[in-house]
Structures are given as C-alpha cells and as structure tokens.
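The methods section describes the discrete structure representation at length, but only in general terms. What matters is that the chain and its backbone geometry are given together, residue for residue. Nothing conveys this as quickly as seeing an actual entry. For illustration, here is how one protein appears when written out as sequence plus structure tokens:
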Amino acid sequence: MHAIIEKVSRRIIERSKKHRQAYLQRVEEARSEGVFRNNLPCSNLAHDLAACQGSCRTSLLNDKVPNIGIISAYNDMVSAHQPYAGYPEIIKEAVAGAGATAQFAGGVPAMCDGITQGEPGMDMSLVSRDVIAMSTVIALSHNLFDGVVLLGVCDKILPGLLMGALQFGHLPAILIPAGPMTSGLPNQEKAHTRELYAEGKIDKKAMLASEMKAYHSPGTCTFYGTANSNQLMAEMLGLHLPGSSFVNAGTKLRDGLTRAAGKRIAGMTHLGADYTPLAQVISEKSVVNAMVGLLATGGSTNETMHLVAIARAAGIRINWDDFSDLSDVVPLIVRIYPNGSGDINSFQEAGGMALLIRELMKGGMLHEDVLTVAGQGLKRYLDKPELDGEHVIWHAGPNRAKDPEVISTVDDPFAAIGGIKVLSGNLGRAIMKISVLKDGEKTYVEAPAMVFHTQHELEEAFKAGKLNRNLVAVVRFQGPQANGMPELHKLITYLSITMDRGYTVGLVTDGRLSGASGKVPFAIHCTPEAYCGGMLAKVQDGDVIRMDADNNLLELKVDRQELEKRDYADPKFGPNRYGLGRQIFAPLRKNLLGAEEGASSIFTYTDESRHVIVSDKS
C-alpha cells in the first residue's frame, strides 16, 4: 500500500472507532437465527401472505427459504430510472431459480436534477436524499426480509438508498444499476450550444433540438456527473457485481447482469454459508477505495458530501482533509467530460472499471482485503462480464486501454494529483475541483467580489452586461439550512462566457455545482454557510477575494476589525421558502448538518451512541 493511503486509512479507523463499534454492535443485535418473518406473530405474517399467491405463498410458508426485499426508484420521467420498470420480475424469477423468493418492498422518490436545474424544485433535491433514506427504512421496517436489492442510480437516490439500508446493516444488500444511455450529441458541443443560447445567438427551438440530441433515450446521462460517479463509487465499494456499472441500458448483457445479481443476493443471506452483510461490505477500507476511485477519475464534487453521509450511516467518520490528503497522491488517470472530450461510454470502451482498478492496484492505491457482493477481495473486480447464452460469465479484464486518451496509467497519468482541493481561510472551508481546469494558472484567482443572493440575480446581471469585468461571483445563502443547497449549474454558462471574453473569473458559494460543471474556478460547499453565521454573509461588492489552490487558501482581503464592524446580510428569502411544496420540508431543512458533515438531517440528533451530535471535528 502507498504510505499516504495507509496513513489516511489508519486515521479514519481511529477516528471512527467508537462510532463504528457501536454501529456494529447494533447490527449484531439485529441478527436472527432463522428467517426474519418467523419472528412475527401469526396475524402479522398473515397480512403479508394475503398479498401472495401461488409459489410466493408456498415459499414464504417454508421457514428455510430466504425472502428478498426489492426497493426501487423506478419512475417514467427520469431516464436513468425508467429502465427499472421490468427489473422486479427479472429479479423475482432469478431469485426463485436460486431457491429463494422476493417481494417488492417499496418505492422511493427519484427526482431529476436535470429537470429541476435552475427551477424551484431544485431546492428540494438534496433533502430528497433524506426522504429516500427514510422511505427505505419504512420499506424494510416490516421485518420480513433476509436480504435487499436496491434499484437506484442518480444523484441523491443511490446515497439515500444506502443511508437507509445501512440501518439494516445485518442484511445483505446489492445495488443493481440501470446503465447509461448510448452516446448522443457530444457534451462539449452541448455546452457550446448552451452558451450560444445564453448570448441570444440561437432560439429556443434550436436549443431544445440540441438538448434532445444529448438526452435521447432511457439510461443514465453520459457525462461524468454525480450519477455516473455514484455508479463508480458503488463498484469501488463492492456493491455492484464486477463490471456492471456502465453496461448500457436495454441490452441483453444488462438483463443478464440483473439476473446474476438476483441469483447472487439469494446466496448472501445469513441462512447460507456465504453470509455477506451490508455493514461489513461498507467498511473503512472500502470507503477509502471509493474515495481513491473518485479522485483518480475526477469524479463529482457532490460525493464529498454523499460519501461522507453514507460512511456516517455505517459508523465511519471521514472529512474533507481525508479527500485532500488522498488527492495529493492519487494520480488522475481518467479523462471524460467535463475533464475530457469522451463520455462514460468512452470510458467503458477504453477498459472500464476492470482496467481502472487494475491500474490503481498496481500503484498500491487500493485495499484488496475487503468484502464485496462478489465474494472476498477486490481482485474479483479485475474481471469483465460477458454473455454466454442468457448467463453472464466473467473473464480477465484488459491490461491496457484501447484509448490511452481516456484511461492512462499510474506511471504516466494525466495529472499527478486527483484534483480535489480543500481551501481554507477567513471565509471558511470549501471544495475546489481543479481536474476540470485546463490551465494551471486558473487555480489562482484574485478579483473584486460581486455579491448575489440567488443564481437568478447573477443571470440578470449577465444579461444587463454587468459581468464584463474581472470578478469573483459570491452566490450566498445557498447552503443546506438556507434553502436546501440546490445545484447552481446554470451559473457556469454565464461565467464561462465571461471568461471567454478575456476576464478573470471565479465563483465562491455555499451552494453546490453539478458534477458536470467545469471550466470556471470555483470554491463550493463553503462552510459555515452564510445563513448559519459564515463569513460569506459579510462580503460586500468590491471586496477582494483570493482563491489559491496551490496554497489551499480562500481569503477575503478585508481587515478583521472592518469585518467585526459589519452586520451579517439579510438573506431576504421571501418566496424562496414556499411554493411547489418547499414549505413542507422546513423541519428537515432546519436540521441539516453542514456540507463537510454530509449535509443530512438524519444524524443531527442521535449518533451511534444515541447522544446528541455536536460535530465531526471532535
């Protein structure tokens, strides 16, 4: 193992010790000697049996047959989740063939950040992750299941499913992806069209035609945003079958992998000889593997919150310093949009997950001694799936990339570091992603602030010609407790155009950006957020701000005594707290932790010791 990987891993294990032990103790207490449904009184079990007919009822009456719960994020409006419509029947058939039975336990909401981007609904996006986690718990609360299949892909859905399922960590769980759509309009061409539309050079009809060429069929979006970062993270955690993350939706291999996952979960329960509980698959070492995989590929900055929250649900404490220290030694060996011209299908064609894991293992970057849904050890993930009739078999994966412009090597990487920087200073702590920046000089920005309270104010300033200058855009009151921390991806188009006009541009915000955001140097997830007393609330137009990734600095160049005299700005939320149902989320929103602590309300009141949580910094 690389010395720094080992050092960070030991630090996480030590920091997590009391929380992890308490969590694992609860997991052990939840185990049962037989099928869990046998613990129910007869009347209770009869309510479940009433919904079953034929072989399902026969199987449930047999106390040797494991019962698998299926939880799905299927809906018809989100391309990444639409393919899940037929999965339950495929899974039930595969599970039955393996000597078990399966029931659809429940559905969880799956909103699309692409549909809600820049719209009021985006204010509910991050908090939907907690709703999904709670919905998962409700689905499993009937205590009927001996294992769980989780069907979910996109930004908040996969993290929420895991946060909920980890409350039942004594059960085995397997994630089944739906796969990406085939490649459509190249992502760089799509981004250029958006800039033309923002400048008024094309009309709405031409803009919609462009977008429909980019997003054209069922499956995950093809850029390397948060959805595909989730899939990579899931495989690095050992929760997907090897090589299944990026097989296209609607293909025979995709269906074969779904059948294989159904068969596999039937053999992972406590009733057999290959018990594989979720609580043991998600461990300190597997979490480090996920962090390394994300850094080596230039993954979404959203995972600096999602992975923190997933780990926390398993009693594991990670923070941004861990990401930063790993980023300093993990090389960037994958370039796909927004880090390069190719997309996730280009990555799959170049060698995919098997080659990525092989290279990282060669560099001593990964823990091989982890438990996975494929069995003991990460080496199983060096294999690539193929169809043999209707069945999936695994062969040794590639040793080198078909396209070295997409996947490089640890010996000759695209960049020596992973590209996530933690900036600190009198404005707080923030995340900066430098792997998307083409020019190293852009990692240093010093310019006067232009302050906005909403992304729409910035849009209006652009249209009025007010951004034609050197600036650091400060978009504040966008943090978790302020308005749910919406993504601010639409800002990038306007700031990118300003950069192309020759101006120095930066962005500082306590909000989020899409995993597909690139080009503009940004300091995001700034914490403490402005609404909770962060210094962003005291920034005024014209104040000079310095962003310096090389020295990890985020500084407001204003004298301390002057800052002490200033009042905190009024957020003036007005209608931003209601409409489109946003008001109903107030109880969750006010309890969201800070970005570095995972921005979840689930852990605000009770930790693994059932005591009030103060902070992860202890």
